[in-house]
Amino acid sequence: MTAGAKKRKEAPRLLMGNEAIARGALEAGIQIASGYPGTPSSEIIENLSRSAAERNIYVEWSTNEKVATEVAAAASFAGLRALCVMKQNGVNVASDFLLHLAHSGTRGGMVLVSCDDPGALSSVNEGDSRPFARILEVPLLEPGDFQEAKDMTKWAFELSEEIRNFVFLRSVTRMSHASGSVIIGDLPAETRRPAFRHKGSLLDPDNGPVISLFPGIPELKHGPQQEKLRRAADIFEKSPFNTYQGPEKPELLIVTSSACSLYSREAVHLLGLKDRVGILKMGTTWPLPPELVKRHLAGTDRILFVEEVMPFLEENVKILAAEAATDLGIKYFYGKKSGHIPSVGELNPDLVLSALRKILNLPSEKDPSDFLKKAESIAASAAPHRELTFCPGCPHRASYWSIHNAIELDGREGFVCGDIGCYTLGFLPCGFGTLKTIHSMGSGTGIAGGFGQIRRFAMNQPILAVCGDSTFFHAAIPALINAVHHRSPITVIVLDNRGTAMTGFQPHPGLAVSAMGEQAVDIDMAEICRALGARVEIRDPFDLEETQRTLNLMMEEAGGAQVLILRQACGLSPEKKGKKLFEVKVDESVCVGENCGCNRLCTRIFRCPGLLWDGQKKTARIDEVICAGCGVCAGICPSGAITKREAQA
After folding, report:
1. Residues 569-595: b if buried by 16+ CB within 10 A, e if exposed
2. What is the model's pTM?
3. Whose CA is closest to 29, among 189, 244, 197, 173?
4. Domain that holds residue 607
5. Tens of pLDDT, residues 384-414
6. In a 3-state reduction of DSSP, which class is residue 359?
7. 101 occurs within a structural domain
8. Residues 533, 621: contact at Cβ < 8 Å?
9. How far out from the chain centre does Cα 510 lie?
10. Which among 535, 567, 599 is the end of a domain?
11. Residue at 378 is within a domain
12. Which terminal Cβ of the chain has fewer Cβ within 10 Å, N or C?
């Protein structure tokens, strides 16, 4: 190789954090990748799927996160390297199997990537997945920048094979979705030949059956598992992913990890504290390397923890400090427990700046409250208020319109239980306040089934549930089985918009395509429901009259669990994006606007972004740029002012 070629090869590339993680997995030689879509993790599997044919790897969007971990584990049992990807909520789903896998151990390298969402920017919670590493008793790694995201992912497979267990790698939104310079490495030229060896003795980790526990003799599996964790701690003592910068004896030591290490470095730089404050950036956050941590604690009396979301590092370091108190002496800790670092939401350099000023008694250059007020004022004057809403042409708006009206017409104060997806917005004005419970994926059906059982105590309210098509396969089927088996009188409405729309239209088992673009078997959800014994109806949510009529009949006749599938592709899906079903117009001479009998029903209540109110003309009008041409608004206008005709090809 020439020097020029080598230089070109080592030139840094601009990679998103998730792209860097995917690249690290490829450099490690993975042959299997599985996951379930969820922001901010989805791009990892998507990037790997684009490399599937070239690198001869298998990539899948699994039915749910538990199944994804089982698919990856099977590859590991056969000696291959496997990656499993999910967001923080998915670790909850996968945890049942993971608790067993941690006991049985693995063979080929297996890495579980959890992308957390501090601040709940695209989630219903900001759950911290790090405590799972402690519960599962497996190593936890956290990259501190984009180069580390790539390098640490690659190294995680080596660590996994050294300790014979899976390794947990945690990212956060600002690591996954931001971009930075990354120097990439070579991709392996050879692949492994899989073989599942299972004819050895029960205690043979290389050739015996892979089992998680011997009943009544936990030391046969749990003991070796804890020894693996101790080995990981020894390895972490010399890990290059744990770094320190600052004076030998700092006035204050910042202990941090992940993207928070970048915030800490920026805050120290802005305040000119590099000669007073040290930063211990931990890349191996569980188990902590005790000698490394104690060595840095010994150099100062004051320690500030900068981390998102829970005080995970803070608590673990405090335990270590307490155990070594006779050697380390009294320490003063600052962080979430002391109130110097917020206990909820994302962090940023300004929050770290504020903590440093308070601890070191530094003068504040400006009043943060005045700054925030000014920023809010500028934002309010520079941009119009935009509330959360369904997209133009979204079938969910039409579905909720019919559901809401059917419940009102029924008159028995019926209600709808929901869960997680685009349709979660059904609790807002854009969904007409329809959803009354929102929890985890599939829980709408499970909770509705529970409500159905208390009707025997003279509760007469109709009980409905909604779930998306991807959620149906992920978690709603067991809840529906339970409802059918126990004759729970509920109506489950599946909002089938033909893809996992919330996270980028990834395929699910109801579609005839895989993550790699290959032909797959499409599972008919209607036939599943019928096979369970549920009554099933299928309607187009854009047909408001028929949808509402069907719903009212189903609520009246509910004697057991029944299912209504409202099927219409998302307006932003690849099959519909940029294509209009109808050309929609408003006849200004017919529009009654704010007058009695209408009072701007279309723009004030229906609220599709494609409908605008013309304050000068006092009529509604269509925004031709963003109107998706679904034509639903023509069915809700009481005066008939909105008309539709089939769009010209």
Report:
1. bbbbeeebeeebbbbbebeeeebbbee
2. 0.90
3. 189
4. 582-646
5. 677 889 999 899 999 999 999 999 999 999 9
6. helix
7. yes
8. no
9. 21
10. 567
11. no
12. C
